[in-house]
Amino acid sequence: MSLVEPRYQDYSCSQNAPLNCEQLKLTAEQFPKAKFCLECGFPAILPEKAEIKGSRGTYQVTKFLGSRGMGRLYLGIKIDDSQPVVIKEYLLPSRSFNTEEASQRQETFVRVAGVSSVDGKNQDFRLITPYEAIADRQGDRCYTITIGNLEASQTLSQYLREKAAMKGEQVREVLSQALQTLQFLHSQKFRLPSGQVRQDLIHGHISLDSLLIVQNNPQSSTIYLCDLAVWERLFEPPLAQSSISSVPLDLNDLGRVAFYLWVGRAVNSSSQPLDPRDTQQWPSSDPELKQFIYRLIGLETPFESAEEARQALLQLKKEKQADSAATIVNTEQKEKGFRIPLILLGLLVLSLLCGGIWYILSKYLPKVNEESSEFDQLVRTFTDVNGVPSGNFTYTGEKQGTWSNILTFRLSSNKNLQDLLTKPNEQITAEFNYHPVSSPDITKGSEPIKSLLKGNQLKENQSTDFTMTSLEDQVTGDLDKRKIAYDGLLVFVPFSKKDQNLPKALHGQISLEQLSQIYTGQVTYWDENKLGGPHILIKPLAPTEPEAEIQFQKIVLHNDEQKIAEYKKTVYPPQSTEETQQQIVTQFDEEKVGIISYGILSKTWNQCAGYPLAISNDEKSAASQALFRLNNQPINPSDNICDKRNRLDVGTFVNGLYPLGYPLFVIYRKDNSTKPAGYKFAEILKTRQGQCLLSKAGLVPLQYIPDNYLNSNDCESVPQP
Fold this sequence. Notes:
By secondary structure, the protein is α+β, with helices and mostly antiparallel strands. The protein is 33% helix and 19% strand. It folds into three domains: 22-314, Orthogonal Bundle (Transferase(Phosphotransferase), domain 1), CATH 1.10.510.10; 392-486 and 663-716, 3-Layer(aba) Sandwich (D-Maltodextrin-Binding Protein, domain 2); 487-652, Periplasmic binding protein-like II (D-Maltodextrin-Binding Protein, domain 2, 3-Layer(aba) Sandwich). The strands form seven sheets. Strands 13, 14, 17, 18, 20, 21, 22 and 26 form an eight-stranded mixed sheet that branches. A six-stranded antiparallel sheet has the order 1-2-3-4-7-6, covered by helices on one side. It has a three-stranded antiparallel sheet with strand order 5-9-10. Strand 1 (51-53) and strand 2 form a beta hairpin. The two termini are 44 Å apart.
């Protein structure tokens, strides 16, 4: 849920609002025909009387209204019949999107921007969708057109600024209408402009800005939803982070909207989103509404669907009834000493039991949502990537690093991934040759990144064209980057099948603070510092991958020089993860020594000598597990993880829930005079075929991959010309 205007990092807007800043408006006033903002160079506002031609008509701009979400709004008319329209303009500015990116997003936009019910019924569920979607193929813009002025209505964000907080009964009405619209979205079949039929559409972009309010009279308002993520997110700059759309997230975001409306503001004094877990922020007038919003947000037992949430909302007592009931209960408690009829107690126990069962099922059973459709929108195979340049290109990475290990993954054809990626497209004479290098001291700089910056030759007459790295902090302004997957660290302890089970004793988890204390020598036995283990020695080990070590020092030790010095004194000499896995169970069972180590995902996720612990930021916060069972449940110490029925959870990494997760990038020089080898290699890896292969090799893909595709061998072959 976005509370701030999208930022285009390549444009130095003084207000961090290039879609609608004062300098942009000033440019339009002084130079009506200007193409760019005079301050930062961002695309200028459309002038009045500008015409936009579409397949269903030609439209003329009459007035600039401002920005909303990822675009700008204008009033206009449909020229042939003078109908009023609202035009939403989306930007693909050249510094943020290259030509290929812009073209692909424009093509997708006209296929998905707009939905209609498959049954053909013109039911009004208060969902604003475009009359027409237009892509300016000669420029950097796209447009949606809606008939009438409804889309220019006040947003809930504007309402908050003008009228402050809503009363509890008003918040209830907003929730009721919005949940009814979501119920319609989540349960119907829709047809996109391309003709594709989609089941159970997700909004994915709910915020104070994507809900519009129309005041019918002083006592009545109508709430409309707009700006669906399926087209809105196409215009997020490539480096922007987006969560995966899902029914639970739609409900969570709506809950936060309700919280902000009731409190009367969305940010705190530091301009950070207001935290609903801060109990001091909540009004005290309607405890039933508060409990309901808690469930919507997911702070308590979440709702399974919008329909269930709406039915629960309708059953809530009115605000005055809730107050009266509370008064009666308090009086009876004083008079009768908290006597509760047995039948009510029985009903309470039964409801708690049913709620607990439902919570387990709703949390862990697979959910049908929009994730697979995001995968379907990816380019299909390596050979479908356009514009791959011809030539022999050389790229690099750490010699003992993630990418070097990923390339050794064996395919079913008995070739490895490096063989496939060296020449991924048989129709084009392009070869990508990998030559890893070692960093003498990676804390002082990554040698693969340095070789790219300096143009070092890795082989005769061939300089570095691009680099694979997870060290985002070392990517300077001279370089560009493309995220292609997620990597991370798993912390593991002995997975012994004997009675003394260390993962069980630790409850399957550990905090970053406890890790810091272990790896700096402050804690030396497993029964210290509330760890909960037996009184045996802790033996902390470190892997040989330099990227893994520097990520551990950054995330766990916070790059504290004193802690890093203690870390180097405490850990045994680094040894390979494979060697640690061979020793870990034997040393625990026979020598009563409890090894703890960490390693990159591709070396630790698909083995069972070491049990990967869930990680929490501190002892008070919930721990997050990276490894899930095939039934969608996070692993626990009672599972037989040796049965290979495990997977890395995509949502945990994409949503930033796993503390030891981080992105993996392709980085290359910002130099338009050279062939775009690095950029195109990233595009190859971001195809369905590429994401599937990276997932099989032990990385986390950028989006959910359907099981039927992941379990097939379709992604391992290169289509022949």
